[in-house]
Write a structure and sequence with these properties.
Oligomer: single chain
Largest sheet: none
Distance between the termini: 77 Å
Shape: elongated
Amino acid sequence: MVSPSVRASLFRLDVLNLVCAFGLGGLVFRKWRSSASKWVWIAGLCWFCQGIVSSSDHVVSWEAAATKSVMFLDEAAIASWILYTLFSIRVVSYSAGAWFGFLVGALWDRQQVLRKLPAPSKG
């Protein structure tokens, strides 16, 4: 059985990757306004699905990799986790951050436009 500290470490690594990619996606979108960054998640999802299909004898998800062997001796499972799961988490989170940046930017821009409008007359 894998110790809870190993599982917790893997979970923290996934969350850290998610948060960093999300923030980076939002910041990059706000800076350059590239609409392609909002659609990168499709490539990440396809990559993850390709990993599931191609790795029938070893695992792709982090939890399965963590519980497959006590000391992580299954190198194929670890490679699949790094190659497919971590990469997919980063790409999908980056794209989610870009969508968030887009929505926040749209709301911010709308507020700026509304502030510049003249006040309605009372008459």
